[in-house]
Amino acid sequence: MAIKSAMSTDGQELTISVQGRFDFSSLQLFRNAYENQEGHPKSYIVDLRESDYLDSSALGMLLALRDHAGGDSSNIRIINCNPDVKKILVITKLDELFTVE
Predict the structure, then answer these.
(1) In CA terms, which of 10, 14, 56, 91 is 20 to 30 Å from 98?
(2) Which domain, by its residues, includes 16?
């Protein structure tokens, strides 16, 4: 399991890539991926291309990112979800809080 982050060259967008299981063991790495950045990006991307599993802890981490990014005014996209992950986001109605692609 690895979590990587990359800021766009203009500092406006932060991409967080999750590899492997997105679960409780990812908590500190995921938090560090957005808290340890200089500046404040206007938008965030969570790329789940290389993740095939998430649990309730991961859902909580996504909500913590949303709070960090501005709550209702946040701009967060979750991209490259496999069908099972997307189904969890829909069932939990997180697709109403995030843009899921």
Answers:
(1) 10
(2) 2-100
